[in-house]
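Subject: Protein record for review, amino acid sequence with backbone structure tokens
Why sent: The fold of this protein is of interest and is recorded here as tokens.
Enclosed: The protein record, placed directly beneath this head.
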Amino acid sequence: MKTILIQVGKTVNKHFQAGINDYVERIGHYMPFEVVTIAELKNTRNLTEEQQKQTEGELILKQLQPADTVVLLDEHGCEYRSIDFARWLQQKQQTARRLVFVIGGPYGFSPSVYQRANEQLSLSKMTFSHQMIRLIFTEQIYRACTIIKGEPYHHE
């Protein structure tokens, strides 16, 4: 199974980017993992929030294949403890050819992206910046990989 993280806009904080790069490299020892960055929209001052979500949504949908299992990182999604997320990921590894996680832009997702999604996942009831959530999420993917392999990174 290939796992892909699609994100809208590049990570601008160099410290976050360094952490993300570290976790992406670590994850690569456990499974094929790729980060796809969709360029931020230009001249958004002339667009409403809905227009921006719609345009970003079209760009997200272009990255998807028909058989992809698509999981949106969304505040209304299911929350898991890390160990439960690892079990969930392990189950997906056996049923999905491509597991695609999506972190949207600042205003969230368009209705068409919600329609295409198979599931929604929330990392917390708290709100984090889109920049920070990338680091938190890649760490959680890495943590799940170590839990699946029974390695000592995670402590109960």
Summary: The radius of gyration is 15 Å.
